[in-house]
Amino acid sequence: MSLRAPLPRLQPSLGLAGMGLLAAGPGALAQDAAPAGAVALPEMNVQGANPPRYRADDTPVVRMPTSVREAPQSITVVPRELIEERGATTLREALRNVTGISLAAGEGGFSGDNLTLRGFSARNDFFIDGIRDSAQYTRDPFFLDSVEVLKGPSSVMFGRGSTGGAINLSTRMPQARNFGELSLTGMSPFGLRSTADIGMYSGTVGVRLNAMATRQDIARRDHVRNERWGVAPSVTWGLGTNTQVSLHFLHQSEDNIPDFGVPILRGRPAPVSYGTFYGLAGVDRERTETNVMTLTAQHRFADGISLRNTFRYGNYDRDLNATAPRIIGAITPATNLSTVLVNRQPQVRRGTDTILQNQTELRAVANTGPLRHQIVTGIEVGRETSQLTRFTSNNRPAATLFNPNFYQAFDQTLSVNTDTDTTANTFGAFVADQIRVGEYFEVLLGGRYDRFDADYTSLAGATGARSNFNRTDDMFSWRGALVFKPISTVRTYFSAGTSFNPSAESLTLAANTTNLEPEKNRSFEIGASWDITPDLAIRGAIFRIEKTNARTPDPANGTLNVLNGEQRSDGFEISAAGRITRDWNVIAGYTYIDSQITRSGTAAEVGKELLNTPRHTATLWTSYDLPRGVQVGGGLSYIDKRYGNNANTVIAPAYMRYDAAISWAITEQLGVRLNALNLTDKRFYEGVYAGNITPGAGRTFIASLTARY
């Protein structure tokens, strides 16, 4: 039995007492009676079949006129139920359910969520409800309804970037019902987490509050700690009417001891104990403050015709003081490793990013003769700013390779290295039309125009020289697809599309990039889906992504870049999601990627695999509902070896991680769950960079108690 079974609704007056009732225990709720005039909901048949928890085919694709089921594109949806079942407390953990993805290290001035998708960086390709969210912080899923991973170039939907795909986060919004959920969690090693999800409505007004607080020590990583809290209130006026206005706010704060891992030694992770940490007490720290406000107004003129306007303001502060461990000197096979010293390289920076964006979107359904059109079109304007100050730290004491002293005395002195400011203005106009041609065929056509204008200023040192760069790019992106449905349960398609990466994509410019046109990408994909049963579907695709003019050093002048490189990513993937039997649910996937740098100004890179791109990735999660509300589940995630540099001389080993879970719905209002992450305590590595690599967490147990009304 699912712990999320619907319960009889309470009146709005009782909804205000929801938090207190949750704290008092579900027994208090048993005394509530439906008032006169309330519509009684039918009793839940606990013996009936549960819905397939892992299928989300009817989810609309953001900025496209299709659902996930109808989309001629590889899309993986990670629903809230799956996130909770797997005990995921970060977006990165939730994305273990998606193949073709690998984590990357937070280097080069970047921190927070950073990953590679189908061979290309997706650090700037995060979105919340279709609006860009490329800030540097650790995203927590406490306010999310689902995570949608759209694979393949998607500039026609999102503008700049999205070479390998895009990750869209769908938020939880008010509903026309009263409900509450409180979850208390304990973790081993030490960790505590609490979340709340409370919704109330009256008439056509609904409110919802999501809240979270987490404090966790990372298993087998000495001194590493994650601590954050957040709230996400929202209100909707006009629930169930033709005109709705919604206001959503997200605040999240972090106070972590960041982990930059262990040094690379002769192209491999240094052979040190799992918990070895090279940071310094009272020095290493990461703080972030995230504030995102979204106002949405939408109106339905008639069936199939609606207009939506979204306004977003976001402010993201970050303060990082971390240690990146790097080997000192040349190491040979004859070197006695006990004598090796490690440079505690300072990574110190503070910055603030902002985004101000407005998007207007019209959706319409129309017929022209025998053709049926589903159209989405719109415009967006935005302004993004980024201020980043990098600091130079006085020499931190070197550490021994095997026994770094976390409590070594160090009196830190900081001085400004560079202070940069960037302002970027965006204008985009897009249209996409899904055309149904008779019973068997569909055609999808889409196009988008973007103008991206960035001004960048850099000041070297406290009184150093000032540099000013400007770059304006006008780009057109397109997508086309042909769909053939031989029978009602099978869809096949061929699609092609483009994307672009401007030099100022990450809100930074330099003398060697300011005069370069955007990198251009194109993709081709052949795919199919088959609804084996109404509850179980499989999808598969063969794809190619080509970057036709990659930035690369000029062979005649190494201080300049030219658009003379080429990169490609070929592969295929297959996935399944749904319910095999009444009580057996499963989601699984496998992706193979053959990536290559086919042309580069650096000879050592030619013929090598793309940075941080494993050939094989696989994921599996399955659960079975036993009698008396007991559910058991388990799964795995596999990442093949991958490289930390384009010359392929730094290797992160392959790994397989196993997870398991068991839960018990004691009553309809009360449930418990036990998760075991990295069940076999496998030593593995996640974020990889040319000079250091970050170990993943060791075996972690998570016990949760959840009360609902």
UniProtKB/TrEMBL annotation:
Residues in TonB-dependent receptor plug domain copies: 68-166
InterPro entries the record matches: Beta-barrel_TonB, Beta-barrel_TonB_sf, Plug_dom, Plug_dom_sf, TonB-dep_rcpt-like, TonB_sidphr_rcpt
GO biological process terms held by the UniProt record: siderophore transport
Major localization listed first in the record, in broad terms: membrane
Gene Ontology terms: cellular component: cell outer membrane
Signal peptide extent: 1-30
UniProt-listed PROSITE patterns: TONB_DEPENDENT_REC_3
Domain (TonB-dependent receptor-like beta-barrel) ranges: 237-679
Membrane topology: Multi-pass membrane protein
Pfam families in the cross-refs: Plug, TonB_dep_Rec_b-barrel
Cellular compartment(s): Cell outer membrane
Molecular function GO labels: siderophore uptake transmembrane transporter activity; signaling receptor activity
Keywords noted in UniProt: Cell outer membrane, Ion transport, Membrane, Receptor, Signal, TonB box, Transmembrane, Transmembrane beta strand, Transport
NCBIfam families: TonB-siderophor
Protein family according to the UniProt entry: Belongs to the TonB-dependent receptor family.
Protein name, entry field: Catecholate siderophore receptor
